[in-house]
Design brief:
The chain is mainly β. A 4-stranded antiparallel sheet has the order 1-6-5-4, with no helix packed on it. The two termini are 21 Å apart.
């Protein structure tokens, strides 16, 4: 086991935020211990098999060709979990879905939502109805690196800063009529945050993040608003956020 270099551990509402610096940014995997939100990415061509229950460890997805790591949030110890996730690129904005026991994230190779199951292979999801604001000149969607799965609503939320972008929700209930129908919650001019990850609180329904200036933000993903809760005293790129 080796040690990750955590920038800081903060306490808020008697729970622990762990923030990783830029070296852990792009391919991060977030995990909610206890009532758990695990951030994760999605598979590609092969159908994934769900976890039997929410795992009890923290996870991180990183590297140009993504690899999965398990992380001890208290000691900083980490170990390589899987080197081959069945893709040649990144997997980002990940979170665990307690409703179906899959990890969801953004599949950079296939430019869509992906999910990961117990075999740690990314399954790319077809049929996502992308919001028109995220499509580029070629009609392809942009990528997201900020994302998590909401515990209460069974939706995958992603955020991208920029005048044309903002906060989006993608329903994950395959039995509902709006399954994989991406909708825009708010644009970036209304919620203009320089953030690199979000994590949902296990009980209050809000997402939280820290911006590059060290400000702690509480995000209401239903109405697309955020509140600045104060400054942590630390600046930098906080690429992975965890709740305990």
């Amino acid at each position: 086991m080796s040690s990750l270099s955590y920038s800081r551990v903060y306490r808020y509402d008697s729970r622990i935020f762990v923030f990783l610096e830029a070296s852990m940014l792009i391919h991060k995997f977030k995990w909610l211990i206890s009532s758990a939100l695990l951030l994760v990415n999605v598979p590609q061509v092969v159908a994934a098999t769900a976890f039997t229950s929410c795992p009890t460890g923290a996870f991180l997805f990183q590297d140009t060709v993504v690899r999965a790591y398990n992380v001890d949030l208290f000691t900083g110890e980490y170990g390589l979990l899987e080197t081959d996730l069945g893709t040649g690129g990144k997997f980002n904005g990940v979170g665990y879905n307690v409703h179906d026991n899959f990890i969801y994230g953004w599949d950079y190779v296939n430019q869509t939502v992906g999910r990961v199951g117990s075999d740690y292979t990314i399954e790319s999801l077809s049929g996502v109805n992308f919001h028109s604001s995220i499509l580029n000149g070629s009609g392809d969607p942009v990528s997201f690196y900020v994302g998590d799965v909401a515990l209460a609503t069974n939706e995958y939320f992603v955020y991208r800063k920029g005048s044309s972008y903002g906060l989006y929700a993608i329903p994950l209930d395959s039995g509902s009529g709006d399954y994989l129908q991406m909708r825009k919650i708010t644009n970036s001019s209304s919620m203009n945050l320089s953030i690199y990850d979000i994590a949902f609180h296990p009980t209050d329904g809000f997402a939280y993040s820290v911006d590059r200036n060290g400000n702690l933000h509480k995000i209401d993903v239903i109405n697309g608003t955020s509140s600045n809760l104060g400054n942590t005293g630390e600046t930098g790129t906080y690429g992975a956020i965890y709740f305990d």
